[in-house]
Sequence to fold (446 residues):
Amino acid sequence: MHEKLSSIYDNVLRRNPGEIEFHQAVREVLESIGPVLGKHPEYAESKIIERVCEPERQIIFRVPWVDDQGQVQINRGFRVEFNSALGPYKGGLRFHPSVYLGIVKFLGFEQIFKNGLTGLPIGGGKGGSDFDPKGRSDREVMSFCQSFMTELYRHIGEYTDVPAGDIGVGGREIGYLFGQYKRITNRYESGVITGKGLAYGGAQVRTEATGYGCAFFVEEMLKARGTSFDGKRVVVSGSGNVAIYTIEKIEQLGGTVVACSDSSGYVLDEKGIDLALLKQVKQDERGRLATYAERRGGHASFVAERSVWEVPCQVAMPSATQNEITGRDAATLVENGCVAVGEGANMPTTPEGIKVFLDAGVAFGPGKAANAGGVATSALEMQQNASRDSWTFEFSERRLQDIMSDIHGRCLQTADEYGMPGNYVAGANIDGFRRVADAMLALGLI
Ligand code: NDP
Fold:
């Protein structure tokens, strides 16, 4: 790492003890932007990098609620408003027992550059709670969401901070959160949250956007190498929102997804995942993947507590959680003939894993670029809410595809400009950083 950046990184470690995921996310960006400082000394002079590593505001709050047994439960809520140079803070809410400040900060930090890369007017933020919706009744989830919003509402707004979903926060949770916001404020402020249902101000393609966008991004990477998804064997991790719509689009593009996973293991289905059955088990019934294998009969088998990355494939689409592809997993994938990786999840590949992929010449699409379709379509939802309009599915999907193609092109062009052809990690980090840095310079000392 560039000497000046190394000392900034040491300071980040010292000021944010124990937040290992946040350290990892900062390190990855700082390792990429060294060459930018040579061309733009004004960034260092104005301490843009030190400023970008420090959130503008961090909110931590108590979330008391009552479960179905009448017991009071206490969770912790977070919202990190990281950077508003480009627009209102924008980023999802994650409800998962592993959530603590370090996770929210890593996600918020990544979001700044991802949102910059979309070219849309959105800043970076993220939030969530250590609440686990798994196994909770609808009534319990509603009770939790109402309590969470009873504190959060005072910090958010169409022009201030616009949350959305992430792990554990889908259409059901967004509905309860928006309902409570509306009730407290007495305002039908549709643009305060995205990922809304189509019945109350949501946008076509938002549900599908992250997965579809990631498949479009990988299709662009394959096209740049003279190939496509057609006939390719693909493995997708996770079986939530991002995974399901990644599978759907890949199948439409001619690929065959032979495996997907959840936190209990993976399912191998050599004939290709039966999407209707997967949606029924995971979305409608909120069930486990083992049930998918049982119902699919002889075609599929469930493998408990093993990594899905042991399944041979040509394209890997990590779409579950952070650090799910280790250096060893990456080496296995490369040995098995993997030629492209698209990160649907945020930071799913460890630094060792990324190195293995880049050294092997695998087309590696980092999350900041490859999964930016979700937040980009959220920005389109805000645009439709502001103009009281709603676009068709076809038009919205075309916009998404254009945005992903544009991001892909800019990553490649920036990587070329800085002498690292084909390196999408460098391209995404540098392009996203430059956009935010230029806006911060123009706005003065913010
Ligand atoms: P969901 O909650 O819909 O699905 C998450 C999936 O990942 C589930 O299958 C879950 O399994 C699995 N998973 C979650 N945590 C773990 C873990 N610790 N170990 C193993 N498996 C795990 O979330 P999303 O699909 O929305 O999000 C997935 C990833 O995509 C996240 O990294 C998120 O940040 C990222 N992302 C999401 C966007 C969106 O629009 N939703 C936008 C951009 C990125 P189980 O059900 O067993 O817990």
In short: The chain has a mean pLDDT of 97. The first strand starts at residue 57 and ends at 66. The CA atoms of residues 162 and 193 lie 5 Å apart.
